Amino acid sequence: MMGAGVNPWGAVLALHLLCAALWVGGMAFALMVVRPSLGALDPAQRTAVTSQVFRRFFLIVWHAMPLLLLSGYAMLFGYYDGFAGVNWSVHTMHALGLIMAVIFLYVFFGPWPKFRAAVSPQRAAGNADRIRKLILVNLVLGLVTIAVAGLGAL
């Protein structure tokens, strides 16, 4: 039997994977479950529910995204000794993760405040649609990143 303790790098990887699952899974849930369900509501109710969904989801991403990046860098530099010690998949995941982070920051500081400040459901809906499209881009990038992780693991 090997050592009985928890491998600290395994714990960092677990944190990394959990953060990725929260972020990517949250985007899939928002787009594939919540958004279609909102059609049953009138515009004012739809705006109110959308606001609460985004607020809660963005709070999760504000915790998951930095932990995801920090845990990735911890493994990259602490376990693999930097970019030279990893294969193509880690380079690809790194690039895609940074792009996703930039898109999230744009959403959070761009269309999201405009959505919250909108005085009419029509204006709110326009900003919500911009947010939805960018979340869709991030969802696709997140799914590609997960596929790259699997392809590069073996």
Report on the structure:
The chain is mainly alpha-helical. The protein has one domain (13-153). It has five helices and no strands. It has helices spanning 8-37, 43-79, 88-109, 111-117, 121-153. Helix 2 (43-79) packs antiparallel against helix 3 (88-109). The longest helix is centred in the middle third of the chain and has 37 residues, at 43-79. The two termini are 25 Å apart.
What secondary-structure arrangement, pairings included, does this model have?
Layout: H1 8-37, H2 43-79, H3 88-109, H4 111-117, H5 121-153
Helix pairs in contact: 1-2, 1-5, 2-3, 2-5, 3-5, 4-5
Write a concise synopsis of the structure shown:
This protein has one domain (13-153). 84% of the residues lie in helices and 0% in strands.
Sum up the structure in keywords:
154 residues, mainly alpha, 5 helices, elongated
Rg calculated over all Cα atoms: 18 Å
Shape field: elongated
Task: State the helical fraction.
Answer: over 70%
Low-confidence stretches: none
How many separate domains make up the residues?
1
Largest sheet: none
